[in-house]
Write a sequence for this structure.
């Protein structure tokens, strides 16, 4: 089993409070500062206060904020929840190259990033397989710890344009080509929960069903996220469509 290793081990801290979509006040070794949140999405239905977190440090003079929050802890174990959606693509490429995703695609000579097909641009083309990556964060499928406070669910708007594109692509695939919709959970699922419904839930559900009927495959991977790096936990066909 290979591990995607961070350049330096992540730093443990506490997310004191979320200030905006992009920033939060964190505390590390008694010092407080503002860190960047690399996702604009909500993090489940939890109150983003006093959450243990893992941070990466970036010594770039062009950056205003030197730290990114890479993961939070919502359970009573060490099942860290990775929240950096950009990281998901790097993880997927790494594990393809290490042949830990051979269940999805095993016969390939090259991996291409951001590939155009029709009117859409997909994250990857692995051999003859077009692949789009999504990192679901609106519902966190873990058993929350005793100190985690939840909030009443709020309606959120999402048309899932990428899912629509995959549906369109199903009809434009050439012979021997495949299309895969890959959900990346940067954690181990311990409790399956009902997904929060967006204001366009019915439209999105219909789009997914039509995409599946059109030949698009739906897969999911779960990962073991640690301060030192990330390892693959499981690969399977998605049942939650």
């Amino acid at each position: 089993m290979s591990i995607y290793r961070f350049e330096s081990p992540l730093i443990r801290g506490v997310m004191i409070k979320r200030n905006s979509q992009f920033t939060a006040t964190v505390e590390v070794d008694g010092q407080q500062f503002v860190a960047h949140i690399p996702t604009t999405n909500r993090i489940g239905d939890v109150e983003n206060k006093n959450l243990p977190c893992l941070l990466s440090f970036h010594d770039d003079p062009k950056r205003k904020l030197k730290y990114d929050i890479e993961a939070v802890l919502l359970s009573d174990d060490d099942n860290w929840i990775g929240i950096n959606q950009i990281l998901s693509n790097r993880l997927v490429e790494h594990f393809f190259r290490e042949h830990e995703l051979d269940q999805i695609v095993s016969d390939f000579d090259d991996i291409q990033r951001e590939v155009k097909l029709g009117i859409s641009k997909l994250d990857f083309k692995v051999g003859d397989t077009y692949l789009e990556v999504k990192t679901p964060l609106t519902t966190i499928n873990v058993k929350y710890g005793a100190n985690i406070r939840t909030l009443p669910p709020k309606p959120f708007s999402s048309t899932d344009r990428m899912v629509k594109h995959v549906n369109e692509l199903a009809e434009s695939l050439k012979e021997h080509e495949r299309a895969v919709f890959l959900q990346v959970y940067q954690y181990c699922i311990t409790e399956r929960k009902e997904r929060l419904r967006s204001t366009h839930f019915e439209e999105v559900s219909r789009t997914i069903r039509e995409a599946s009927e059109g030949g698009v495959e739906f897969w999911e991977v779960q990962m073991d996220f640690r301060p030192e790096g990330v390892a693959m936990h499981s690969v399977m066909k998605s049942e939650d469509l």
Summary: The longest strand covers residues 49-57. Residues 85-97 form the longest helix (13 residues).
